[in-house]
Amino acid sequence: MAIKSRFLISTTLILLLTCFFSWLSMRVLAEDIIGSWVERYAEKQVRYDKVRTLLPLIQEVNLSKEFANLNALTLWAKNPHDDNLKAQALQETEKFRPRFSDGSYFIALKGNDRYYYSDGEKPINSDYYRYTLDASKNSDAWFYGIMEKNLDLHLNVNPDVELGVVKLWSDVLIREGDEVLGVVGTGLDLSTFLNQMVEKQDIYSAILFTSPEGSIQLYQNEALISFSSLTNESNNQKCIFKLLDDEASHALLKSTYALAKESPNHVETAVVKKDGVRQLASVIYIPEIDWFQVNFIDINNFLPFTEFSGLLIVFAISLVFALLIVYLLLAVIVTKPIAELESSIRALGENQYKAPKLSRFAGPEIKRLVAHYRNISKTLLSYQQELEEKVATRTAELSRLSKRDPLTELYNRRGFEMHMADYMQKWESARTPFGLINVDVDRFKSINDQYGHGAGDLVLQRIADYLIEIVGENGEVSRWGGDEFLILVKQADVASLALISKQLLGKSNPLIVDIKSQNVTIQFSVGSALVQEEDTLADILHRADKAMYAVKFAGRD
Ligand SMILES: Nc1nc2c(ncn2[C@@H]2O[C@H](COP(=O)(O)OP(=O)(O)OP(=O)(O)O)[C@@H](O)[C@H]2O)c(=O)[nH]1
């Protein structure tokens, strides 16, 4: 795999790993930040919600307590059948009534089991009597339950069957000493109360108020409110724990309730699973009304992790840019110069020098490498050129030697045959007559025998010069073998051939060679032939040879 690809793959892997771990650490960091922000926010929100939501309620409770302590009311409660006391009591309570925010109150007396209610409307009957309480009726169980449990204060959400409304009741006992005389209180219209609660509710959190057992007393979703919590079996109640998704969350919230109860008005928190998401439950116990307030905050919704995704995208884009820059740098500094070097080396393989072009950004190591390569390649090329020249010279020399006789430097038989083949090809078109003269040295053996082989060689060289001299520019001399020579006469006719032959026969001016200070006359037998139509080289040679031998043997007679 190419360096570039390897580098790209490994860098991409490294960057992906970096991205992954950055994402992980960012996630952990973001969760920590979100967690701590949510906790701080929750603590403030819980306290704020407590004051905001419960202030009117607590105000009503306090008014109810004050109402229960009205002297005239206590006197009447002790003597419920005394009409005078009743009249005095109702006069007092009617004076008190406008102080309740709902402008209504109820009085339920133990002595006569009667329930009185006033809301400012003209009463059906003058004494505000509405109905008689019945211990066997489920709808009246709250009254007997409060008295039985001796609860000084009880907040209760309960439908008033007779009045046909659901109210948030603050029930307070009328007592004289330890004696319980009845229950009084006021009711807030639940729907109005809940609407106010929802209107003012923070968008991130849901507030619930529950009894210590967890039954929901106030919640924006009215359907989940547990009515008459005092009298219902806890299993049937609409319980806060049942809003949670799993057992672990259930147990955690319960233990948080226990912690909150240990330190009233102190906010305890727990992360639970509700409605399929993680939520921070902030729990505070409000001893004044013996309720727990719970705020649920959807952590992700409060500060969604997606808020951080922008950062992550910026990070990822930066990484991609970094990768691109690294890739480009790698190309400019390393891979492009290496590719240049490679193409130059390839050209060198074909005996061409192609200088590698390097940009000024190429890495210094590569520049040094290329500089070494340039020197080596130039040396290599000059060696090669030198070698080729030597080979060419040697080849030419060999070719020359293969065609020339080393002793006389004349064409040897092979060289002359090749030369004649060319010559005859040209002659085919030019048709300029030529001739061949066969020259054989007479009794050359005796020269060797008499003066030695070396002397014989010198004589042969001398003969070669002599023959060249005789034929001049118009001829070419070759050594046909041993002491036999062939002369090509280029522009020839019978007369010119006869003239040369006559000169060679040397009757008037023979060749005299000085051998070891002795003048030795060299004599030749000569035969010539003029080229004829349709002749081959062999044909002319044959005729010249024949003519020469005819002369030689004729001379011996
Ligand atoms: N020194 C020397 N002698 C050579 C060379 N080539 C051939 N000879 C000799 O030339 C002689 C040729 O002898 P022959 O063919 O009998 O010819 P000849 O002695 O001239 O006799 P005829 O031709 O019949 O007159 C031989 O003795 C060869 O050894 C050479 O290169 N150098």
From TrEMBL:
The chain crosses the membrane at residues 308-334. GO terms for cellular component: plasma membrane. It is an enzyme of class 2 (transferase). InterPro entries: Diguanylate_Cyclase (IPR050469), GGDEF_dom (IPR000160), Nucleotide_cyclase (IPR029787), Rev_trsase/Diguanyl_cyclase (IPR043128). Signal peptide: none annotated. Pfam families: GGDEF. The keyword Cell wall biogenesis/degradation does not apply. Keywords: Membrane, Transmembrane, Transmembrane helix. Gene3D superfamilies: 3.30.70.270, 6.10.340.10. It catalyses: 2 GTP = 3',3'-c-di-GMP + 2 diphosphate. One of its GO terms (molecular function) is diguanylate cyclase activity. Its EC number is 2.7.7.65. The keyword Transmembrane helix applies. Residues 432-557 form the GGDEF domain. GO terms for biological process: cell adhesion involved in single-species biofilm formation; negative regulation of bacterial-type flagellum-dependent cell motility. This is diguanylate cyclase. It comes from Marinomonas profundimaris.
